Amino acid sequence: MARSSGFLDSLLTSPTTERYRVGISLLFLLIIWLGVGALSKDMPNSMLLMAAAVIGGYMAINIGANDVANNVGPAVGSGALSLGAAVLIAAVFEAGGALIAGGDVVSTIKGGIIDPSTLSDERAFVWLMTAALLAGALWLNLATWMGAPVSTTHSIVGGVLGAGIAAGGWGIADWAVMGKIAASWVISPVLGGALAALFLYLIKKAVLYRKDVVPAARTFVPWLVAIMAWAFGTYLMIKGVKKIVKVDFVDAALIGLLAAVIVFFAVRTMVKRMASTMENSPRGVSGLFTWPLIFAAALLSFAHGANDVANAIGPLAAINDALSSGGVVTSASIPLWVMMVGAFGLAVGLMLFGPRLIKTVGSEITELDKTRAFCVALSAALTVILASQLGLPVSSTHIAIGGVFGVGFLREYLKSNYASQLHTIMEHHDAAEQERLRPFLNDFRNASVEEMERLLQQAKKKKQVPLSKSERKRLKKIYKEEMVKRSHLTKIAAAWIITVPASAIMAAILFFTLRGLLI
């Protein structure tokens, strides 16, 4: 099993297979072209619809390549799932979410950012939607190539805004809505990061810093996983299946509570059974979060497929309706072929090009173990629930990445704080005992945050931690180690900020180009 998993991981990431992955994606787009051509052969402007369908498939591929990494990246980075297994699970649940819960009607103007009623010509509307779709896809393609996870919703919002202004002037845009979207650039990552850091700190204090970790885990882990079950149960009801079953928040919360009760007793029984053989260390307890992380990856992928498939098929459905009816539409029915383009495009993009971003989210921003990844996944669900009730516009991508940064910065803070405690103790001892201190320093330098806490407690009891001034300065340098890669922070933040303007400018240029070619 391990050998086959390693082979699949290599197949998905090896540079030597990249040309084959590109070829498969082009074959997928060719199938869309031919399939839609056969379906629309008697329809006016069938070539335009075929082109729009290919662009919609291209957009879906890029959504799968870029956005899905946030759902499975933490599970892969923590070791709960291999890359190959994560890609297969996410592909199935993304496509399933899109086909099962993607709905049969979609809003053609994402978020109500423009008023299409000001357009009297349906051809301008078709060009607008085509330009928006292509611009959003091109920006996502570029962001994926740069290794920057960005919001696919913001990409298509920018595309619609830019093409809309090009088609109808500045007055076509709803700038109040755009202001809320801009606010989400700060709200989403801050909320996600704060919640992830808070849960990680609570887990450390309640479980990982205890002398007897296993008894603490028996008490607290069932409650933690039950909270996750409530969050995901509620999240799925208000976001994942909202187009199948419409429930208010109270009903969704009650369904989540029922799931939490069932999960609590199941996990408590499991932890009790495993306690006798569990290693009495944070590493041993971390294994308890493996299955919750796997379920979280699957459920997040399902909800993402149900919601974000609209970013690819919304404009395509609008183009299909406009060409069929000869008018401008604000909501459009979704034919089965349109939904299949979106659903299978998500799966194809994830499997062919998603691994690069999965690795970025899972291991390149900060080191994730199962406990930290659990906190990221939990914060993602809770933040979406909280934001939806407060009416705040948030991005699931920004939330997840904010959670990863949140746990990383918390680790930096804690390690720096523990170093300060050690310095205070050492100032009370004679430098002549440095040789006796050396093994302790080596252990402390290489320790994890949890191990540092225990070493500090041991040092306080034994009073054997002398350190010279030069060694104190040297020790301080050790704790300047970056547990969050600042280069990734800068790159991702910059990509987030320019997503809407970049896709808007590209969409405006594409709109004028299409209008010039097709008039």
Automatic annotation (TrEMBL):
Q: Keywords for this entry?
A: Membrane, Phosphate transport, Transmembrane, Transmembrane helix, Transport
List residues traversing the bilayer: 20-40, 47-65, 124-143, 155-173, 185-203, 215-237, 249-267, 288-306, 334-353, 373-392, 398-414, 493-514
Q: Can you quote a single GO CC term?
A: membrane
Location, primary (coarse class): membrane
Can you say where in the cell this protein is located?
Answer: Membrane
Show the InterPro entries listed in the entry: Phos_transporter
Protein's GO biological process: phosphate ion transmembrane transport
Q: Name the protein family.
A: Belongs to the inorganic phosphate transporter (PiT) (TC 2.A.20) family.
What organism does the record attribute this protein to? Marinobacter salinexigens
Manganese keyword on record: no
Q: How does it sit in the membrane?
A: Multi-pass membrane protein
Q: Name one GO molecular function term.
A: phosphate transmembrane transporter activity
Q: What is this protein called?
A: Phosphate transporter
